[in-house]
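Figure 3 (text version): structure tokens given as input.
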């Protein structure tokens, strides 16, 4: 068995100048991905990063791996074709809330439902950054932008609800101000067999600065986020004294030690529980803490494996194909 090479972060840093605005959250995500790549145990010649269009989509240039900077919203199609052509590749798809959920929304839901073994990182800054600040499918109502001068009247997508509804087998959330958590989530995504999707709350310092500040700010995030761990009680807060309790017909935030509430009364996270996954997707600050970590993880048949198995079965039954014979079969004619 060939021993896997040992990598350091610098082995995944390309020679290209990084062209993001100073202070952009993309830098922290890039650094965390490069560090995560040193831990996943894959040969870098078998790692590919694919992107569409947007600030996040410059990602392949900055990774010293194979990569493809493709067309707007169509990265899932390229990733699908790549995995079908070479199922052994470690494929990462990098997109944003505009590229992935607007023009690319249809492509995204189908790669999720098919359960192709790729890892999707969606940068969510609730704005179009590359095209200079238009509202996006995740922008909150009332946001004033160049394309919504009187305030956006659109209702935003819940990315978690969309992904879980499309049948994703791994969905997680993380934040650009916590590199350690990002690395852990990216590792778990790589280990998952099937489509993994990670939403990263990312700050656009120019066009939507501090949009996620309540739950990404290091001084506040312990009290405004819920770190999910499979099989563990849903506890949060700087003092670890807050939790989620099932109040009979809905979840509620409680304080441990008040009204007879103890840790044993809290809900316990279960990554396989589809009901809880949908519940988390409806958690919004300030009513609830924002859930971070793996919301949903289940095993399902992997698409490219099913395709390979189907091809092998047909070949076994009918024999290998002949392209020349196929092209000349049926009614053919020659144009002179």
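Below: residues designed for each position.
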């Amino acid at each position: 068995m060939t021993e896997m090479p040992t990598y350091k972060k610098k082995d995944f840093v390309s020679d290209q100048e990084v062209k993001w605005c100073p202070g952009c959250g993309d830098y922290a995500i890039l650094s965390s991905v490069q560090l995560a790549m040193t831990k996943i145990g894959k040969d870098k010649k078998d790692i590919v990063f694919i992107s569409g269009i947007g600030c996040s989509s410059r990602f392949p240039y900055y990774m010293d791996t194979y990569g493809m900077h493709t067309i707007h919203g169509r990265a899932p199609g390229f990733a699908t074709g790549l995995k079908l052509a070479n199922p052994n590749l470690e494929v990462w798809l990098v997109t944003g809330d505009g590229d992935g959920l607007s023009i690319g929304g249809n492509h995204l839901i189908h790669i999720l439902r098919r359960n192709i073994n790729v890892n999707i990182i969606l940068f969510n800054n609730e704005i179009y950054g590359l095209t200079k600040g238009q509202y996006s499918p995740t922008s909150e109502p009332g946001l004033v932008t160049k394309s919504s001068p009187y305030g956006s009247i659109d209702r935003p997508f819940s990315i978690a609800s969309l992904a879980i509804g499309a049948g994703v087998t791994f969905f997680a959330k993380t934040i650009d101000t916590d590199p350690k958590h990002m690395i852990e989530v990216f590792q778990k995504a790589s280990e998952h067999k099937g489509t993994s999707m990670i939403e990263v709350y990312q700050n656009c310092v120019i066009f939507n600065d501090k949009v996620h500040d309540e739950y990404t700010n290091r001084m506040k995030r312990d009290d405004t986020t819920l770190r999910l761990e499979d099989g563990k009680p849903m506890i949060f807060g700087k003092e670890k004294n807050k939790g989620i309790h099932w109040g009979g017909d809905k979840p509620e935030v409680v304080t441990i030690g008040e009204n007879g509430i103890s840790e044993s009364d809290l809900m316990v996270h279960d990554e396989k529980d589809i009901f809880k996954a949908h519940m988390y997707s409806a958690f919004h600050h300030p009513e609830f803490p924002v859930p971070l970590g793996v919301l949903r993880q289940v095993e399902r048949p992997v698409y490219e494996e099913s395709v390979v198995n189907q091809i092998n079965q047909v070949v076994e039954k009918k024999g290998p194909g002949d392209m020349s014979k196929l092209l000349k079969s049926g009614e053919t004619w020659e144009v002179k």
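The longest strand covers residues 290-297.
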